[in-house]
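We read letters as residues; the integers encode the fold. Take this protein.
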Amino acid sequence: MHFDTSLIAPAFYLPPISYFSAIRAFGRPILIEQYEHFPKQTYRTRASIHSANGKLNLIVPVKKGSNGHTAMKDVRISYDANWQRLHWLSLQTSYRTSAFFEYYEDEFAPFYDKKYEFLVDYNMELFELICRLLKLEVTWVRTTGYEAEYVGAIDLRTAIHPKKPLFRQTDPYFQVFASKNGFLEDLSVVDLLFNQGPQSKRYLYTNSKP
């Protein structure tokens, strides 16, 4: 594939702040990976938020058979358990006292009611919403096949991972439960949005130097 891109990125669920910091730093367009073999225990199905008891991971369950040989585009979401209700209640409980949760909640609520078949579609519609709320002008396309390496591009497919050191260091900002738990870094970008609101874009700008 020949594609003039500066960034190739995975399709994450409510991606961490470092993901959007990288997008802001390295510009556009973005190539979204959908043909990689689906890796488990990554931000593709996980988002970390700040609850009263500390970091809380929200996990999107996928149907059995989704393994290391399944292409990301073919991974289907499981609704055997009512995870949507659990995720939405967790977001409400964690952020109801934040300055901007009420400002954004009607934008996110439909994603915890409507059922999506494929994980990549769900993640990318959330990605588009977040970019709009952050007022980030992002041009992106999905891959049409798998390539192990994109010469000259910044590759985030394995760089941002829950079990790896931070890809990009970011500055502290106000968090509701920081007085109890301390500042928790590189949570889902919704933590930034609900606490900082319209200032989130400025925060990303000051934390996006390559």
Summary: The longest strand covers residues 46-51.
